[in-house]
């Protein structure tokens, strides 16, 4: 068993646990550490299971499309709406986008893509050509990423990492416009379509699913707990509800699948 993904995932979770205990510059450093460790854990697991070429492709798609969308978004307001990152909070920036932001797309996408792939493969609705399975996986990935952003955006906005020009969003988190989530639907769908093409290449090596599954469940349920209890901003109680509800579209079927797998004695 390759222990590197497990170690990196454990360090990422430890850093997230430390997040509510910090403030100011220390919290900024923890934020960067969390993103970097989550991305590294996902890429290390991908390298062990899919090889270096597939992993490089995954990183290029997620970080590349993510960065391009952020550069265009901050410059033009499309596709997310008008927003701007705080200066000198998250490390070096290029075109006014902190360089850690593309890593966040990679970090968030890997466990979501992995879970969506498992659920689509086990849905029982695929045809011999696999088209419906691929469409299901793309749709589930998009839903999962939007659910993740329903945690991410309110938390980072409450911490002052970026700000929006206009409100008009969901009740309780009105400061984030609905256009943000529409933008996430567009960008996440494009990423998922590109990953679907990538996924047709390269063998899958034997190994366990533990790291991406734990990271997904931790993000889904751990973020809900953190927003509800440990982070003080009142709007985060609303994001806990929204994020957990949307991510449960993947999370509940995943838990049911894991329960069935445990009943058969299969290895996770």
TrEMBL record:
Keywords: Membrane, Transmembrane, Transmembrane helix. The chain crosses the membrane at residues 30-48, 55-80, 100-122, 134-152, 181-198, 210-233, 239-258. The keyword Membrane applies. The keyword Transmembrane helix applies. It holds the Pfam family Caroten_synth. InterPro entries: CruF-like. This is Caratenoid biosynthesis protein.
């Amino acid at each position: 068993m390759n222990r590197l993904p497990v170690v990196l995932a454990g360090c990422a979770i430890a850093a997230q646990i430390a997040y509510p205990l910090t403030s100011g510059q220390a919290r900024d450093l923890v934020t960067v550490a969390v993103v970097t460790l989550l991305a590294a854990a996902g890429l290390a697991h991908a390298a062990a299971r899919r090889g270096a070429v597939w992993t490089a492709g995954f990183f290029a798609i997620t970080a590349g499309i993510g960065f391009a969308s952020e550069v265009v978004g901050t410059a033009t307001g499309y596709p997310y709406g008008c927003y701007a990152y705080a200066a000198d909070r998250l490390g070096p920036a290029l075109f006014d986008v902190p360089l850690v932001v593309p890593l966040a797309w990679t970090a968030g996408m890997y466990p979501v893509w992995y879970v969506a792939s498992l659920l689509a493969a086990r849905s029982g609705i695929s045809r011999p050509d696999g088209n419906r399975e691929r469409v299901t996986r793309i749709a589930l990935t998009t839903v999962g990423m939007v659910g993740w952003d329903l945690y991410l955006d309110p938390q980072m906005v409450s911490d002052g990492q970026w700000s929006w020009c206009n409100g008009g969003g969901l009740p309780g988190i009105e400061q984030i416009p609905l256009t943000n989530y529409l933008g996430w639907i567009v960008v996440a769908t494009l990423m998922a379509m590109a990953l679907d093409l990538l996924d047709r290449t390269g063998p899958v090596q034997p190994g366990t699913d533990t790291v991406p599954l734990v990271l997904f469940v931790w993000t889904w349920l751990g973020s809900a707990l953190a927003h509800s209890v440990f982070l003080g901003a009142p709007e985060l109680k609303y994001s806990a509800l929204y994020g957990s509800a949307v991510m449960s579209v993947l999370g509940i079927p995943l838990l049911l699948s894991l329960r069935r797998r445990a009943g058969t004695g299969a290895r996770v």
